[in-house]
Design a protein that fits this description.
InterPro entries: Glyas_Fos-R_dOase_dom, VOC_core. Pfam families: Glyoxalase (PF00903). This is VOC family protein. With 154 residues, the chain is an alpha/beta fold. Helix content is 26%, strand content 35%. The longest helix has 14 residues. The relative contact order is 0.16.
């Protein structure tokens, strides 16, 4: 059997995040998003040097913050321009589950012009999650028309 050029369980593009409190984050992601822990590699001081979880069939890799290695979490640097886009079967249920697990409301869940039902939360570790369920196939041309119409009414 030939070894694939892509790590087992990964896709061609994957996220690798740095977290202050990686172990707590893994537990949060289990409760909030039904994550499955695949494994952890511990540093001598007990912090996580590498961990892998799976959410909805996608691999998310992570590690504890390690200033000596130049890995800083969003909480340390005071923000984060990145968001996760998470597609689930029932956005309303997962959105509420995330809030009940300790996430903070960023944007209430609603149907969007591009065919998805979407809500946004901030997890306790400084990462924003767009929780979505695709409801309607919309062409890019129709999406643009709806977007332009939405912008003209504001």
């Amino acid at each position: 059997m030939q070894t694939s050029h892509i790590y087992p369980g990964a896709h061609s593009l994957n996220a690798y995040i740095t977290i202050n409190g990686c172990s707590d984050a893994i537990e949060f992601y289990k409760k909030a998003f039904g994550a499955i822990e695949k494994g952890r590699l511990l540093m001598p001081d007990g912090k996580i040097g590498h961990a892998e979880i799976e959410i909805e069939g996608s691999l998310l890799m992570m590690a504890d913050e390690n200033i000596d290695w130049g890995n800083k979490s969003p909480l340390t640097i005071g923000g984060n321009p990145m968001s996760f886009g998470l597609y689930v079967k029932d956005a309303d249920a997962v959105f509420q589950q995330a809030l009940d697990s300790g996430a903070i409301l960023v944007m209430a869940i609603e149907d969007m012009f591009y065919g998805d039902r979407v809500g946004q939360v901030m997890d306790p570790f400084g990462y924003k999650w767009m929780i979505s369920t695709h409801k309607e196939d919309v062409s890019f041309e129709e999406t643009k028309k709806r977007f332009d119409n939405m912008m003209s009414v504001q």
